[in-house]
């Protein structure tokens, strides 16, 4: 039988700290890959397992819950490509059930919360969970006025022009509709349409797509609506946001109303009065799954009575009145033929299993992730073992374990390398965790001298969330990195390509795979990115722990490239005042500050930054209001806020020109304290900082 990871109940406190740190980082990465880049690298089942383990550890060690805990996060930050749209009513995600007993427990919890008897009927709906991209459509006076993706649940991307190109989405509603209506549902692509699209791509010599879900999501998030129009997208409506006049008082009634307005709704949605009925429908849908013609990954149950939904309310990031019953992941057995090591942008070594090809859910699998050396040890796998492979969706699968009684006599243990596989053979190092334990991630110590890291750094630099240079993808970066005539070894080299091409006798258009038009297009795309927003510049540098959200925070706080650059250099040189100022920023802690100090304290990196800065024009961050009562002040929100969420409070203060800090220091000007305020309030009192409550805050800003 496969070996299992260490049970949560057996973890020591030190192990729990390290595990929560690992899970927070890993889940954040997968949120970004799934929601923002439409390129997931793990299955839904693997992702759900990460979240379940994180929650279980938090429940056992509540004092160790991190500020960046995935438990309190929905989706991922929105892309910089599109305008932002704030949802009038948040688009929250659902809790998951993974077994029949989970569903029985869910129904039992609802009955207890509503103070019903254990056998009292409770009307609930059950419908397929579509594996697509969530979309919110806003209609006013029956006309479509905006469309937005889920984003982080609070703020999404404006994809209105693209939504108008989807045949299933009416531009004008039919029937007797409310004056204001936000319709929510899922954009998806059928299997038949997906296969036909890939055949066309192949016939035209173009790249084929991975799976229907990613293709649908990527199609809806195109900057050119004509591309969306050319893709066979469909839409199922199943929920709503803001509604001026409710046409029904039940879930079934509301969905029927949506159908009457011209939307496609799922014919498999049914109503039941107990867990037994829900589960019977779940298993019926499970049997029909292969014949539906579109991807689903479970069944969603919702309390039918909208008044009861209102009473039940929400918990954390999910409604208490709904749950998604996920289908089990698909599994298969195969032989582990070998383990390769991949080097990432930050030097992290990731072992990848090479497998005897095996078909899992209709897809031939040849590779699987092994995460790190500890995962190999935990699984107990050896080269030659028969292993169990799991996948759910067309993504990189995971090895669950090995079959001990099938181990061959010539099976070989894998020895994790002590030096980098690159030609430099630089030593492998392991960093410590916040708790002082040895970290699980092994890294090449060569930094940008290591060619693997340099290539990955360049790929990050031109990626969509960084400089987003069209026509300069992974293959082109690989080409230029190794090209003897026009080498690109650093970001600054990208911006000198056209000049060097003009001065070189062997021009780019003469090289295989290039021509005059493609070369001109590339140079134009590079030139278009010579002016870049400050947050993208910071993010593009590839500093460890500085993701997109952190880059935005730093950009807003420092305002200009020169201010950030000078602060980073000061911190690298040990300036404690500069460090304290950065530490006071919301979401910025020691890990980020130390990473910035290391980055700007290294000669090669500083040279890289200075060369790049000389080639580009970095735009100052958008300046907030400068004449409000709190403009220029540093504010800390603490305790429970009752009239606004913490994110809303932060955004409001920043719009008014204030800086929002996560900790109290001598530089703090104002504390807005709600019920339950603790150590921050006490420190503010000790420092003599002005303290007001939420009502006084609104009075001060004129709200």
Explain what the structure shows.
With 703 residues, the chain is an alpha+beta fold. It folds into 5 domains: 8-73 and 329-406, Beta Barrel (OB fold (Dihydrolipoamide Acetyltransferase, E2P)); 84-325, D-amino Acid Aminotransferase, Chain A, domain 1 (2-Layer Sandwich), CATH 3.30.470; 447-529, 5' to 3' exonuclease, C-terminal subdomain (DNA polymerase, domain 1), CATH 1.10.150; 533-619, DNA polymerase, domain 1 (Orthogonal Bundle), CATH 1.10.150.20; 634-701, 3-Layer(aba) Sandwich (Rossmann fold), CATH 3.40.50.10190. It is built from 25 helices and 26 strands. The strands form 8 sheets. Strands 2-13-10-3-9 form a 5-stranded mixed β-sheet, with helices on both faces. A 5-stranded antiparallel β-sheet has the order 16-15-14-17-18. The protein is globular. It starts with 12 loop residues before the first helix and ends with a helix. 35% of the residues are buried.
Strands, count: 26
The dominant shape is globular
User: How many domains?
Assistant: 5
Strand order of the biggest β-sheet = 2-13-10-3-9
CATH class of the largest domain: Alpha Beta
**CATH fold topology of the largest domain:** D-amino Acid Aminotransferase, Chain A, domain 1
CATH architecture of the largest domain: 2-Layer Sandwich
Return residue spans where pLDDT drops below 50 for at least 5 consecutive residues: none
Distance between the termini: 62 Å
- The proportion of residues in beta strands is 15-25%
Question: What is the assigned CATH homologous superfamily of the largest domain?
Answer: DNA ligase/mRNA capping enzyme
Percentage of residues assigned to helices = 25-40%
> Number of helical segments?
25
- Specify the structural class: alpha+beta
- Mean pLDDT figure: 85
- Determine Rg (CA atoms, Å): 27 Å
């Amino acid at each position: 039988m496969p070996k299992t990871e260490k049970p949560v109940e057996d973890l020591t406190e030190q192990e729990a700290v390290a595990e929560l740190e690992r899970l927070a980082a890993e889940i954040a990465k997968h949120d970004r890959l799934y929601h923002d880049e439409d390129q997931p690298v793990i299955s839904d089942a693997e992702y759900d397992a990460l979240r379940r383990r994180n929650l279980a550890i938090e429940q056992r060690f509540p004092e160790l819950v991190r500020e960046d805990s995935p438990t309190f996060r929905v989706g991922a930050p929105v892309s910089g490509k599109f305008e932002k749209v704030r949802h009038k009513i948040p688009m929250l995600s659902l809790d998951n059930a993974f077994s029949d007993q989970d569903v029985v427990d869910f129904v039992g919890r609802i009955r207890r919360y509503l103070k019903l008897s254990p056998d009292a009927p409770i009307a609930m709906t059950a419908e397929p969970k579509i594996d697509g991209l969530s979309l919110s459509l806003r209609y006013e006076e029956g006309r479509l006025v905006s469309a937005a993706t889920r984003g982080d649940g609070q703020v999404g991307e404006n994809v209105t022009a693209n939504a108008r190109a989807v045949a299933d989405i009416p531009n004008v509603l039919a029937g007797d509709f409310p004056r204001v209506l936000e319709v929510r549902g899922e954009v998806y692509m059928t299997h038949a349409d997906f296969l036909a699209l890939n055949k066309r791509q192949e016939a035209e010599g173009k790249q084929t797509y991975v799976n229907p879900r990613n293709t649908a999501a990527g199609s809806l998030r195109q900057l050119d609506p004509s591309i969306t129009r050319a893709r066979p997208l469909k839409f199922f409506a199943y929920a709503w946001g803001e509604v001026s006049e409710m046409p029904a008082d039940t879930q079934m009634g509301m969905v029927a109303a949506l159908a009457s307005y011209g939307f496609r709704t799922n014919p498999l949605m049914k109503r039941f009065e107990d867990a037994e009925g829900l589960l019977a429908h779940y298993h019926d849908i499970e049997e029909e799954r292969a014949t539906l013609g579109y991807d689903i990954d479970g069944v969603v149950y919702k309390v039918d009575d909208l008044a009861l939904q209102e009473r039940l309310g929400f918990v954390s990031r999910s409604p208490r009145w709904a749950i998604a019953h996920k289908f089990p992941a698909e599994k298969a057995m195969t032989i582990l033929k070998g383990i390769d090591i991949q080097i990432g942008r930050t030097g992290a070594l990731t072992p990848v299993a090479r497998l005897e090809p095996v078909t899992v859910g209709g897809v031939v699998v040849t590779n699987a992730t092994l995460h790190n050396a500890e995962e190999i040890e935990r699984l107990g796998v050896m080269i030659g073992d028969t292993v169990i492979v799991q996948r759910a969706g067309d993504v990189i699968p995971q090895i669950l374990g090995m079959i001990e009684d099938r181990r061959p006599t010539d099976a070989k243990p894998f020895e994790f390398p002590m030096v980098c596989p690159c030609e430099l053979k630089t030593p492998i190092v392991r960093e410590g965790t916040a708790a002082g334990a040895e970290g699980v991630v092994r890294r090449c110590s060569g930094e940008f001298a290591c060619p693997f890291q340099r290539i990955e750094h360049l790929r990050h630099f031109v990626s969509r969330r960084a400089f987003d240079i069209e026509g300069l993808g992974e293959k082109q970066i690989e080409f230029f990195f190794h090209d003897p005539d026009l080498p690109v070894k650093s970001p600054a080299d990208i911006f000198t390509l056209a000049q060097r091409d003009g001065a070189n006798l062997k021009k780019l258009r003469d090289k295989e795979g290039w021509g005059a038009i493609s070369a001109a297009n590339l140079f134009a795309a590079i030139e278009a990115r010579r002016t870049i927003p400050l947050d993208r510049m910071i993010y593009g540098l590839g500093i460890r722990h500085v993701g997109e959200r952190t880059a935005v925070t730093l950009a807003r706080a420092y305002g200009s490239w020169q201010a950030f650059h000078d602060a980073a250099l000061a911190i690298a040189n040990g300036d404690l005042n500069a460090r304290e100022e950065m530490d006071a920023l919301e979401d910025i802690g020691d890990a980020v500050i130390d990473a910035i100090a290391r980055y700007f304290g290294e000669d090669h990196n500083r040279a890289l930054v200075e060369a790049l800065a000389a080639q580009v024009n970095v735009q100052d961050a958008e300046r907030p209001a400068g004449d409000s009562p709190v403009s220029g002040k540093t504010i800390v929100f603490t305790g429970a806020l009752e009239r606004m969420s913490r994110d809303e409070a932060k955004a409001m203060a920043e719009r008014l020109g204030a800086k929002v800090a996560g900790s109290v220091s001598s530089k703090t000007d104002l504390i807005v304290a709600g019920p339950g305020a603790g150590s921050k309030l006490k420190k503010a009192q000790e420092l003599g900082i002005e303290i007001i409550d939420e009502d006084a805050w609104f009075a001060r800003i004129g709200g």
